[in-house]
Amino acid sequence: MHARIVRVQEGTRRLWDAVLPRSRVFAVTVFVLSLTVFDALSTFVLVGLGVAEEANPLLADLIDRIGLFGAMSVRLVVGVGLTLVLAWLSTWRREARPVLVFVAIVLTLVAGIHIVGTVQTLA
User: Fold this and answer.
1) CA 68 → CA 25, 64, 114, distances in Å?
2) Alpha carbon 27 to chain centroid distance?
3) What residues in the chain have per-residue pLDDT under 70?
4) Which one of 20, 29, 75, 97 is most buried, counting C-beta atoms within 10 A?
């Protein structure tokens, strides 16, 4: 039974390494940080111009309470902080790497929504 558990654990390690090798954690972290900054800036511009509304109810409430600049500042600080913690965990724990990849995918989709919204606004 012990040998079977060891084989499963080794297979899991290989899966996490296949999803995101340790050597690529830094590159994905920089990508996520870039997307975080882009999200905050594009939200600031689109909401500030009145052509879009914040879809995240927590951020929308924060915008109502402290203003757009303050809310986007909080969003940046929290986003960068969580990304750095996740990157640090991903460097030492294979199991955290798929989470970093998932965050990159979600932020890429959000960036796409912002780009489409900007293009439609300019058209």
Assistant:
1) 32, 8, 16
2) 13
3) 1, 5-6, 8-9, 11-13, 16
4) 97
Tokens 């932020």 belong to 107
The Cα–Cα gap between 91 and 18 comes to: 14
Which pair of tokens denotes residue 47? Answer: 């909401």
Residue 102 CA: distances (Å) to CA of 71, 85, 92, 96, 121 = 24, 15, 18, 10, 29
User: Residue written as tokens 């390494």?
Assistant: 17
pLDDT digits (tens, 9 = 90+) for 80-101: 999 999 999 999 888 888 899 9
* Backbone φ and ψ of 38, nearest 5°: -60, -45
**Cβ-contact 80, 33 below 8 angstroms:** yes
CB 102 within 8 A of CB 29: no
